[in-house]
Write a structure and sequence with these properties.
With 116 residues, the protein is α+β, with helices and mostly antiparallel strands. The chain is 21% helix and 34% strand.
């Protein structure tokens, strides 16, 4: 090989990837487990769809705050909100524990309530 030439890659194997056996095996979930999985997937999709939208959080002690939902963690235990407007301050970014939240309302038309 001369200077400046690029070496051709060597093909080690030419095969197709197959899904693991567990992915193609019949489902071993009970109907109740399948229903719970479907509900969980719908809940997670609702949270994903709400990213970037304005929300209102009703907190304990009758407090209410507003902002834009920017993220939630995988366990739905924390919500990241930008431009969080509280009765006293505007926080550019905030992390809110869901244990402090009574209700999450996505301020769309029509409004949508999210659950944990």
């Amino acid at each position: 090989m001369e200077d400046g030439e690029i070496e051709e890659p060597t093909v080690i194997a030419d095969s197709t990837l197959e899904p693991p056996a567990a992915a193609t095996a019949p489902s071993t979930l009970t109907p109740e487990q399948q229903e719970n999985a479907a509900r969980r997937a719908a809940t997670l999709q609702a949270w994903i769809d709400a990213i970037g939208k304005p929300i209102r959080l009703d907190l304990h002690e009758e407090a209410s705050v507003r902002g834009t939902l920017t993220a939630v963690d995988s366990r739905l235990s924390r919500i990241h909100v930008s431009q969080l407007q509280t009765p006293m301050f505007l926080y550019p970014e905030a992390l809110v524990r869901t244990s402090d939240v009574v209700l999450v309302e996505v301020l769309t038309d029509p409004p949508q309530v999210l659950s944990f």
